[in-house]
Amino acid sequence: MPEHDEVDRIVGAWVRERPDLDFAPLQVLSRVGRLARHLDRARRTAFTASGLESWEFDVLSALRRAGSPYQLSPKALLQQTLVSSGTMTNRIDRLVTRALVERRTDPHDGRGILVTMTADGRQRVDTAISTLLVSENELLDGLSAGDQERLAALLRKLSLDFD
C-alpha cells in the first residue's frame, strides 16, 4: 500500500504555497469528501442495477425498515428523508405512478393517508441494498474489522452535532 495518497499531494502543495495556514482539516475532510464520491458512485450503480433512482431508494428503504406492512405516513417519510413536504408529495406521486408504492387511507384516522410499499417496491429495494452492501464491503476491504469499528465510532462522534 502506498504511503501517500492524493490528499497528501494536495496538502503538501498548499503547505508549500501557504505555509502560514494550518491544513490539518484537509487531512481528514478531503479524504471524507473523496470517499463520499466513491460511495456515491457505488450507490448509483447499485440503485441503477435495481431500476431505482437514489431518491426512490431513500423512500423505499424507509418503508422497508418500518417493517411489515411496510407503510409510513408522509410526515414520517419527511422526517426520515429530510426533504420538504412538496418534494415528498412529488416523490410519492412518482412512486405511485411506477407502482412501487400505494396510497391508502389510514384506518386510525380517516383523514390521513399511509404510503405502503408494493411487492415490486420491496423486491427492488431488497435487491438494491444487497448489491450496495457488496460494493460498500469492497470499499472497506483495506480496513480490518477493528479499524472499521474505530472509524465508525470516530465518524459517529463527529456527526452527532449534525443530526
Question: Care to describe what's here?
Answer:
The chain has helices at 6-17, 24-49, 54-65, 74-81, 85-97, 119-139, 145-159; strands at residues 71-72, 101-106, 109-117. By secondary structure, the protein is mainly alpha-helical. The longest helix is centred in the first third of the chain and has 26 residues, at 24-49. The two termini are 34 Å apart.
What's the helix and strand layout?
Layout: H1 6-17, H2 24-49, H3 54-65, E1 71-72, H4 74-81, H5 85-97, E2 101-106, E3 109-117, H6 119-139, H7 145-159
Antiparallel strand pairs: 1-3, 2-3
Helix pairs in contact: 2-6, 3-6, 4-5
Question: Top keywords for this entry?
Answer:
163 residues; single chain; three-stranded antiparallel beta sheet; mainly alpha; 7 helices; elongated
